[in-house]
Specification:
- The chain is α+β, with helices and mostly antiparallel strands.
- Helix content is 35%, strand content 18%.
- The protein is built from four helices and seven strands, in the order ββαββαβββαα.
- A three-stranded antiparallel sheet has the order 1-2-5. A two-stranded antiparallel sheet has the order 3-4.
- Helix 2 packs across helix 4.
- The longest helix is centred in the C-terminal third of the chain and has 21 residues.
Amino acid sequence: MAIAISPRDQTEFVTKADRELPPEQRTVFLLRPLTNVQRKLIEDQSLVMDGASGQAMPRMGSVKIEAVRACLIGCRNFCDVDGSPVEFQTEGKRNVLGVNVEPPSPTSINRLHPSDLAEIVDEIMAVSRTTVDEGKG
């Protein structure tokens, strides 16, 4: 029997560096998996044809940001270098990769350290694959 998956599922994620901290000091990112449609749209957008060579070239930077916009839904205990809390801001309801969500604002995305952003993207992709695989009967 096939088991339905829910795009409303969410998971908590802690970066590798923060896993060394006591639990009360860790930043926790709240993520949702990509839907099947979003995963396929990302696959379609991941390559672009190079006009000069005629070869497919990877186009991952903007695709990764779209994954974060679609799947990063909040965080807890996110602070600046002085220890002051950083507010997680959204853009309000928007269509991102075919689904209406409240994506993080560019300001919120820009506050993430590049290594944390890379880990968040990797986790979104891993959670999305796992969720789809678990839905198989």
